[in-house]
Amino acid sequence: MFASFRLSMTWVHTWFGLTLGYVLMACFFFGALSVFDREIDRWAIPESRFDPQPMPSFDEVLLPRFLAIEPDKESYKEAQKEVIGTLPPLASLRPSEFGAYTTHRDPVLGMYSSFDVPNKPRDPKLDHVHVYGDVTIDPRNGAPIPKDRYAIGSNFFYPLHFSLHFYWLDLGYWIVGLAALVMLVALISGVVIHRKIFREFFTFRSRKQIQRSALDLHNLTGVVALPFHFFFAFTGLVIFAGIYLPVTETLFHDTVEAYEKIEAEKSPLPHDAAGVAASLAPVDPMVEEAQRRWAARGMAGEVGYLTVTHYGDANGYVSVYRSGTDRVSGTGEGVHFRATDGAVLLEDPPATAVSGINNWLAGLHLQQFRHWTLRWLYVLGGLAGCACIATGFLFFVEKRKRQHAKSGSSGARWVDALAVAAVTGMLIATAAMLVGNRLLPETLPTRADWEQRIFWFAWLAALIHAAWRSAPVQSAMTSPAWREQCWALVVLCIAAPVLNWITTGDHLLRTLSEGYWPVAGFDLALLLTAATAFYAARRLRDTQRLVHSTTGQDQSEPAHA
User: Could you give the count of Cα atoms lying within 13 Å of 297 in the half-sphere of its Cβ?
Assistant: First the structure.
């Protein structure tokens, strides 16, 4: 079919990358934003603009708030679908498990309660079904953060990069997983194609024609961040291996069930409730004992995760996990106490080799440890991936648009329209969501839903605009949608920090003078994006004028990358 292996790899690289490059663009961009998801949350939720806090007192702060958590109505409806018979009234459900989680970057504290239901599950593979409730609090005083304050960073941008918010049959996870596999293939085939890969590390001819400079920038960003791209595609697949290869739920289900029963019998931690009511001993002394044990082993002693299992039952126990700020893997080194008297039941043993490797790979991908330099390198690597994909789109269109114009094909036109929507359109949707976050009334019902609608509507509008303005590509010209959407991005990225100033009083001079970088840094990032879009729009406009003066045509060609 092909004259050489290298030509076959060129075909694979081109068409695999084009097919799923739009998905990978979203994965890279929102993955880059997710590196600072907690900081974006603070920008979006002014009530959370204070310094990160340690885990507060359980007995004084957390327990009263846990007991005040109500079952979530949506969770109740979902549980009703999974059980036989009618669930008890929502108000009659009693909590059976509590949990609280924080990191070194979280000013607020996330808490959840699990409520047992007596109904048998419809699926015989399930032991039981729960109804859940959650709340976010100010750990300084236990005051709840209003439910309508949407954590844009951790609840929207972060899950978007691995699920696309498409949860039906887990299709979003499968699409992203397929895109990650395609990315690995594209990386390997790209190395085969570019034989002079070391020279391309230093080559970028910005003043050449767009096709040449786009290819140079594509090669440069691909080579510079090649280890980053490969590692994150691979570890992303490892993290969700349970979804892609659910052998423990299918092929080895019975074996896993038998193994878990044996482990439960050996473990001093009760698997089931005893059905005998019992009180909960003070938990703060248990936390102090866990910290003492960590200190004795030469480890930092901040609490990252705390749970109470079988609350109010004689088999209840409390688990205290160490925060993972000083190591790659996440929370760990759990110490488990009997809930009735605080006696130590178990200290987690060291991880096995397989579990340790898995935790290390997942931890390096998620990067919850304290290392700000590496965090910024993650952002730069993600943006380099975006640049690599965007320039790949440009090169594809520039290489083919004249040939397609002669043959009457519209392929280049629609690829260009999708590329505009995937690049500038995605940025517009993001900036529009931030503007909406500052403009929507605080008392608006379902305010979080409206913020999400603004994002999706803005992205859809950008796609429609890109398709509508793509006709010049049919004549081997360049779509003016690139320039027009750059101008829209300028307006939105300036409007967001200005509206933040107007609605909260936290202008740049104030946040910079106070050293409050979560808000100051995000405002600066928005203004830098506006400046970059302004520069791109000006270059596109100047090129349009040059083309018009030399050809007499009122069409534009994009500036060199």
Answer: 16
- Long-range CB pairs of 270-275 (<8 Å, 24+ gap) are 270/310, 270/315, 270/317, 272/315, 273/96, 273/116, 273/310, 273/313, 273/315, 273/316, 274/310, 274/313, 274/314, 274/315, 275/313
Share of the chain above pLDDT 70, in %: 93
- B/e letters for 195-211, b = 16+ CB within 10 Å, e = fewer, are eeeeebeeeeeeeeebb
User: From the CB of residue 531, how many other CB atoms can be counted at a distance below 10 Å?
Assistant: 13
pLDDT, average across residues 311-333 = 87
- Cα(362)–Cα(377) distance, rounded to whole angstroms? 17
Angle between helices 481-504 and 447-468 (to 10 degrees): 160
Query: Measured between alpha carbons, how far is residue 127 from residues 71, 78, 117, 188, 402 in Å?
Result: 20, 16, 11, 44, 62
Distance from C-alpha of 110 to C-alpha of 127, rounded to nearest angstrom: 26
DSSP at 88 = P
Listed in sequence order, the residues at least 6 apart from 291 whose beta carbon sits closer than 8 Å to its beta carbon are 301, 303
DSSP three-state, residue 132: strand
Residues 6+ apart with CB under 8 A from 394: 210, 214, 419, 558, 561
- Cβ atoms of 51 and 107 within 8 Å: the answer is yes
To the nearest whole number, what is the mean pLDDT of the chain? 87
The residues, ordered by sequence, that sit 6+ positions from 142 with a Cβ below 8 Å of its Cβ are: 56, 61, 62, 64, 65
Label residue 2 exposed, middle or buried (CB < 10 Å: 0-12, 13-18, 19+).
exposed
401 and 211 Cβ atoms separated by less than 8 Å: no
Residue 561 has pLDDT above 70, yes or no: no
- Answer yes or no: pTM beyond 0.90: no
pLDDT, tens digit, for every residue of 477-502?
778 899 999 999 999 999 999 999 99
CA–CA gap between residue 535 and residue 541 (Å, rounded): 10
